[in-house]
Amino acid sequence: MTKFINPGLKKTSRRNVLRGSVLAGAAAVTGAGAMASRRAPSLEGVNATSAKLYKAAEQQTADSTAKPADLSGYTRVKQELVAPPFAPDHEQVATGGPKIIEITMDTTEKLMVVDEDSGASVWALTYNGSVPGPLIICHEGDMVELTLRNPVDSMMEHNIDFHASTGALGGGGLTHVFPGEETVLRWKATKPGCFTYHCAPGGAMIPYHVTHGMNGAVMVLPRDGLKDKDGNPLRYDSIAYIGEQDYYLPMDENGDYRSYEAAGDDYADSLDAMRTLIPTHSVFNGAVGALTGENALKGKVGETVLMIHNQANRDSRPHLIGGHGNFVWESSFTDAPMQDMETWFVRGGCAVAAMYTFEQPGVYAYVNHNLIEGVMLGATAHFVVDGEWDNELMEQVVAPREFEA
Predict the structure, then answer these.
(1) Domains (ranges, CATH) in the chain?
(2) What are phi and psi of 162, to 5 degrees?
(3) Residue-wise pLDDT tens digits, 107-164
(4) Counting Cβ atoms within 10 Å, is residue 230 exposed (0-12), middle (13-18) or buried (19+)?
(5) C-alpha distances in angstroms, 203 versus 166, 174, 177, 207?
(6) Which positions are annotated as active-site residues?
(7) Nearest CA to 107 among 68, 166, 160?
């Protein structure tokens, strides 16, 4: 059955993917120094501002005279990506020389429940089936070599823009894959820090894909590991990878959330909802309660956790209720970390790292301290910490009791 997934663009079906608002002429490099093949999908119907934003990409090609990358001295290693909130196996301090980190990601489109209580759901656009996409970890000077695959039964074209990379719109200009296609992109990690990645097909499809879950984070560690302002080494026992996702789910005239048969069917309705700039949900790791209850993060007194918070679209203000950000890197690992922060700032389109060592047992709530979003829209996670209580730090001197007026 033929459908119009992208009204005003090109007619599409389940096997004839949306080919509308894309970075026209994106280079498809088949080898070092190879001439780029040019694809020129129509920009008809694309938001004019977005079309101008990506106009430069129309002339983008791979220069046939470019020298092949010098890969001598690099060791190839395969990184097995894992679902959030967990992190892949990695070294905190790099051993040996620089590496080529091989990873694979599939652009999976899946129906996902956002809030069981209200029945809200979304056709999520994902990397490897999770919101956020998996955390990638490397060291400064390493190269990340991604194989990006778009399954044949997908509805849409996808790509990836790495904020940590240099050139070609963060790789977005070189990674457009239609259903049934794959591409390989290699980029060098030249700047240490935490960075967002996201899908950016072009035009209004950029915010549409990002607000449907297609984003994640890369952590580029210094080769000698994290350090405090005095150069002393900092180590963590675990990583808690938290992706804050704003959704703009269409509602009907009765205020009930709409449901759709397939990915992309909500396109026109979603654009209307997105233009309000008011999210219906702001959640951690894809859904309300994804990191609470049985899914709460676990810890022990004395353990140090590195919290990596990604927000690809809106500003956020994380706060650990009952704890602090002992060390916080809001910008780059090249900057000395801020210390003993009560609440820190994640700029829209950024990822931030914060380190804390648990000192008391119990439940810690990690929230967006815009408490409207944290409490009412879903941006809350829990750490459940085991250990012995320390009355030196806090003591209930008198339990609640009645008193005489």
Answers:
(1) 74-225 (2.60.40.420), 238-386 (2.60.40.420)
(2) -95, 115
(3) 999 999 999 999 999 999 999 999 999 999 999 999 999 999 999 999 999 999 999 9
(4) exposed
(5) 21, 16, 16, 8
(6) 158, 161, 163, 198-199, 209, 214, 319, 342-343, 369
(7) 160
